[in-house]
Amino acid sequence: MPKPIGEITRGTTGHNRLRRADRWIAAAHGRLLRAADRPLVVDLGYGASHTTTLEMFLRLRRICPSVEVVGVEIDPARVAAARPYERPGLSFALGGFELPVARPPLLVRAFNVLRQYGEEQAWTYWAMLSERLAPGGVIVEGTCSEVGHRAVWAGLDRSGPVTLTLSARFDAFDRPSDLADRLPKTLIHRNVPGEPVHAFLRDFDHAWAISVPLRAYGSRQRWIAAAETLAATWPLAGRPPLGGRSRWRLGEITLPWSAVAPR
User: Fold this and answer.
1) Helix crossing, 196-210 with 219-233: angle to 10°?
2) Cβ pair 33, 106 in contact under 8 A
3) Mean pLDDT calculated for residue range 124-135
4) What is the DSSP letter of 87?
5) H or E stretch at 228
6) Strand pairing report for 107-111 and 90-94
7) Which of 10, 17, 94, 113 makes an SS bond possible with 148, Cβ 3.0 to 4.6 Å?
8) How do beta strands 150-157 and 138-144 pair?
9) Predicted local distance difference test score (pLDDT) of residue 237
10) The whole model's pTM is what?
11) CB neighbour list of residue 157: distance below 8 Å, 6 or more residues apart
12) d(CA 109, CA 175)
């Protein structure tokens, strides 16, 4: 068997760490999964425990009973520890970015995997994963805090990145730009003046600041108001935040990738 492509991660994981991303996947891509015959989902680099892969499987099964999930890990010991938890529709495999699965996946989730690589390598692995997708397939790649209260992820298809999503528990930050340390590797070093992602975070902080009167009604109302301000006034014309109030009320905001793409 060829050597898996990639390096072993720290493997940190825990219950509900990726709940925010799973919730978004179910909302954003549930229709895609339900429209497919036996859709295959890969959880790449699930870490030292099978927990987040099992949680993803159970959540996606609620919206698409035919979905199959494969957890892929580059560490043989982690794969061996996960295999006792296999069940119909859920399995674990040894591998890396080459995605050693029987057929092209319709969806790949890769969290806390690319932080250890450089920006150029991150772009390379994005392209490698995209090439392995089934037609119409998508990738959700991002990072989150240790307990999952702050997360940022990119949504990609075979053509490259399409969206960027910020998601946080309302007591996990002081201002939206606190999530900058969770930006994808392709953006985290671009958070400097002159780059679109820096302009977005600056404007989000401003919208959050001027929404402070709504703090009396709770941080959720303040976040919604800040998102509405961005949607109405953001200078990047034609590229407002996506999703609407139903997503914003969850502490989420999704942008077209074109609005934050590196210059």
Assistant:
1) 130
2) yes
3) 97
4) B
5) helix 219-233
6) unpaired
7) 17
8) antiparallel
9) 46
10) 0.95
11) 130, 133, 136, 137, 138, 139
12) 27
pLDDT of residue 152: 98
User: Which domains does the chain show, CATH number per domain?
Assistant: 19-168 (3.40.50.150), 190-258 (no CATH)
- Per DSSP, the residues of 229-263 read HHHHH-SSTT---BS-HHHHTTTEEEEEGGGT---
* Count of other CB atoms within 10 angstroms of residue 17: 24
Q: Under a CB-based contact definition with an 8 Å cutoff, are residues 65 and 56 in contact? A: no
Average pLDDT of the chain is: 94
**What is the identity of the amino acid at 88?**
P
Burial string for 181-202 (b: 16+ CB within 10 Å, else e) reads: ebbbbbbbebbeeebbbbbbbe
For tokens 């998102």, the residue is 227
Bridge partners of 153, per DSSP, are 142, 165
Overall average pLDDT of the 46-54 stretch = 96
Mean pLDDT of 207-234: 92
8 Å CB contact between 25 and 60: yes
Query: Containing H/E element for 68?
Result: strand 68-73
75 conformational bin, left if phi > 0, alpha if psi -120 to 50, beta if neither: beta
Q: How far is CA 105 from CA 19, 85, 237, in A?
A: 21, 21, 35
**How does residue 28 score in pLDDT terms, banded at 50, 70 and 90?**
very high
Residue 53 pLDDT > 60, yes or no?
A: yes
